[in-house]
């Protein structure tokens, strides 16, 4: 089975005598490859099915045990688009089920992983015992601007990042926000919208344009979906990616019209729209353009009335002189939109589909609030299926951010960009217009890449088995139980299954038996054991799911 990152293999770094080799040459090759891309002189005029996408609904299954690595064919993930029928339940005014008991430590940890990017040391413990509603609203109702705690991000030379200009530094800039922001859910929702309305810089070819779109997602993270949809429709990155600037009354381009219905608002194979609706919607969306120069590329994005088709168009059986604003309104008002929206949003947080009753209640919240996002998110995060249901595989970028948060390490290298790409997810480069396939996060290639991410996370704080002059030596007498406690404390004491704990404990107790016999071996071999224990915890099956 091919994973999202199977095409980005990099040779693993070697570790010898407590030192690591660098990836400078590999990094340089990747940067050179991306810098070699040439800005297009002009866009193709008409290519309605240019973007590849998935049409098969993604099956999701819970992980039954953490004692073995889950099989690649049965990973819990977020299906997109969700498999929902053509006759969903009607919206209901009945409230969705909600956990009423105080939040447990396990539930708090899950909430911080799925609605953010993992807990910082002591954060989950501080929430345990509080009312679930209060904890959830602490995430969904932030006030004021986000505060970024800790050192600002830098590259490997200690210089400030240049996210609009340097390859990979856009990824690291956003990773830093995931690590440091005190508005974790806002960043997580921006991450979700980046996948929902997937654009790739592979085609947009402007890191600044992608960063601007990223801010758009942050601004509308928990606001009104119709407003978000309107903003995305005329966003320059989207106008480039799905050829909105190529759509005119004399030459309609159907790319955005099709995806705004199939992927963004209604879903495929539900009878929600016809090919005639695609053509009518394309005509409604026309009129946007931009200038292109050899020196500056695309610029001056604007609507030109003379390029817009002002004649009547028929969409969803309704005829009128529809504009691009009407196109969005017609999608959101479609009777099949609410069921699509709540099902797809649910799938980012819970691997199993909602019951019909829950779906109906979520639809009622959504429609009754005039398409507000926050009420639906709050209901999902308090739902028993979210807090106590099956586990969900953690996306690579979330895994990376969570490990950094656990040990308090800032973003101080740009290696995270190619490391996450190897694991299947480089920010601003989703594989196609459908976004990432959340059911394909782990395979033989990407699992190895996660090991490398964990190894790099520990790179600046691992015990050196062979310290230089003036450096402290590692304990020569540390017992296995103390080594285990130290390794777990390093990662802020994550909760592992009994099977994983037994496996790691057995390693701690046996790895030095019959090996460290000489006096000179006692300190360095115990340091090596500590390093191995930290890696075993970070890469255990439990740490890949929440």
Strand order of the largest sheet: 1-2
Number of strands: 6
Write down the overall mean pLDDT. 88
Task: Characterize the quaternary organization of these chains.
Answer: single chain
Largest sheet: 2 strands, antiparallel
Q: Summarize the helix and strand pattern as letters.
A: EEHHHHHHHHHHHHEEEEHHHHHHHHHHH
- Portion of residues in beta strands equals under 5%
Residues in helix, %: 40-55%
Question: Quick one: overall form?
Answer: globular
Helical segment count = 23
Low-confidence segments: 1-75
Gap between N and C termini = 23 Å
The Cα radius of gyration reads 25 Å
Task: Note down, in words, how this protein is organized.
A hairpin with a 2-residue loop joins strand 1 and strand 2 (19-20). The chain is built from 23 helices and six strands. The protein is mainly alpha-helical.
Q: Mind sketching the topology for me?
A:
Blueprint: E1 15-16, E2 19-20, H1 24-35, H2 105-114, H3 123-127, H4 132-140, H5 169-180, H6 184-196, H7 201-204, H8 207-219, H9 225-233, H10 236-241, H11 255-262, H12 275-285, E3 288-293, E4 297-303, E5 313-315, E6 318-320, H13 324-333, H14 337-347, H15 356-368, H16 374-381, H17 384-388, H18 396-407, H19 415-422, H20 444-457, H21 480-490, H22 498-510, H23 522-538
Antiparallel strand pairs: 1-2, 3-4, 5-6
Question: What's a concise summary of this model?
Answer:
By secondary structure, the chain is mainly α.
Features:
546 residues; mainly alpha; two-stranded antiparallel sheet; globular
